[in-house]
Design a protein that fits this description.
The chain contains 13 helices and 18 strands. It is α+β, with helices and mostly antiparallel strands. Bound molecules: adenosine-5'-triphosphate. The site of adenosine-5'-triphosphate (ATP) has 23 residues, from α6 and α7. Pfam families: MreB_Mbl.
Length: about 350
């Protein structure tokens, strides 16, 4: 009863708890928060203290002194550090609800379709401990498809490929249900790791995660440039030979080569999904093509590479980074649709 009373003061919300970014959608208001999934923790006398969360904490990544740690609690699309994840969810819920003491919202959270029952339970418990009244889960590709405006409830097959930081989710959806799904733990993070490894190997230079991500966004590409080496970028790091800071120049051609492996694994996942799609739905996909969502959809030429590998039309969603949050939010607005979707998780 008490929870119900508190519920009157709260607004229901949808959370896209991503490996890279967390987005919060509040019923009737839309997306109200979009911050990196990073928490900075300070150790004081053996006790952990939250120093910063989100944008502020991301700036600290790789730049912290001994007693401070900037942590990404989500790895590969699931919670890697429960305690810190809970703090992060708590912080974001509080930030959204100005009157935190009255906030007992009903929360819907997206989970990767490949997450195990144990991982789903952990996410649910973290949100409950963070102060949610009732927690529902929705599968990420379904949310992404709704957010991208695909006709998920119609008797026609729609294919969505959500390329996130930790996972790539491929799903075929029809009549409000997921007919086929495939989740691989390959995404933007693996590309960043590949860039770090390449620069270390080829230039003896050590760079951090944040620099690798910047390089990927600025000059990364899913295929070799058509005209020579493509654009260049200056990057700074630590020389492994003599330990001093150094600056080098890398080209799009080099970065495309560095991330070729994770890109081909994403393409492979799409091809395997197509092979496993029932014929009637496959026929629908031939007509309508594939919808790309998630931040990875913004990688230069990823649509071209998937189009060439499958021979199908490929569309990039309008707001790839917000699709999952928008879709979860839309489901939250339509309670009957939500109940149907939640029942499947
Ligand atoms: N312009 C860009 N080019 C290439 N990659 C990008 C671009 N913009 C964002 N990304 C990458 O997209 C990823 C984040 O995407 P998104 O926010 O959809 O993932 P997430 O929801 O946090 O992760 P997951 O779905 O795995 O939990 C990061 O790896 C980021 O580097």
């Amino acid at each position: 009863m008490l929870a119900g009373l508190f519920g009157m003061f709260s607004s229901d919300m949808a959370i896209d708890l991503g490996t890279a970014n967390t987005l919060v959608y509040v019923k009737g208001r839309g997306i109200v928060l979009n911050e990196p999934s990073v928490v900075a923790i300070k150790e004081v006398g053996g006790k952990k203290q939250v120093l910063a969360v989100g944008e502020e904490a991301k700036l600290m990544l790789g730049r912290t002194p001994g007693n401070i740690q900037a942590i990404r609690p989500m790895r590969d699309g699931v919670i890697a550090d429960f305690e810190v994840a809970e703090e992060m969810i708590k912080h974001f819920i509080k930030k959204v609800h100005k009157r935190a003491s009255f906030a007992y919202p009903r929360v819907v959270i997206c989970v990767p379709s490949g997450s195990t029952a144990v991982e789903r339970k952990a996410i649910k418990e973290s949100a409950e401990l963070a102060g949610s009244r009732r927690v529902g889960l929705i599968e990420e590709p379904m949310a992404a498809a709704i957010g991208a405006g695909l006709p998920v409830t119609e008797p026609t097959g729609s294919m969505v490929v959500d390329i996130g930081g930790g996972t790539t989710e491929v799903a075929v959806i029809s009549l409000g249900g997921i007919v086929y799904k495939r989740s691989v733990r390959i995404g933007g993070d693996k590309m960043d790791e590949a860039i770090i490894a390449f620069i270390r190997r080829a230039h003896n230079l050590l760079i951090g995660e944040a620099s690798a991500e910047r390089i990927k966004k600025q000059i990364g590409s899913a295929r070799q440039p058509q005209d020579g080496e493509g654009p260049h970028m200056e990057i700074k790091g630590r020389d492994l030979m003599n330990g001093v800071p150094k600056e080098i120049s890398v080209s799009r051609a080099q970065i495309a080569e560095a991330i070729a492996e994770p890109v081909s694994q994403i393409v492979e996942a799409v091809k395997l999904a197509l092979e496993a799609t029932p014929p009637e739905l496959a026929a629908d996909i031939v007509d309508k093509g594939i919808m790309l969502t998630g931040g990875g959809a913004l990688l230069d030429s990823i649509d071209v590479v998937i189009r060439e590998a499958t021979g199908l039309p490929v569309t990039i969603a309008e707001e790839p980074l917000s699709c999952v949050a928008l879709g979860t939010g839309k489901a939250l607005e339509h309670k009957s649709a939500l109940n149907q979707l939640l029942a499947e998780v």
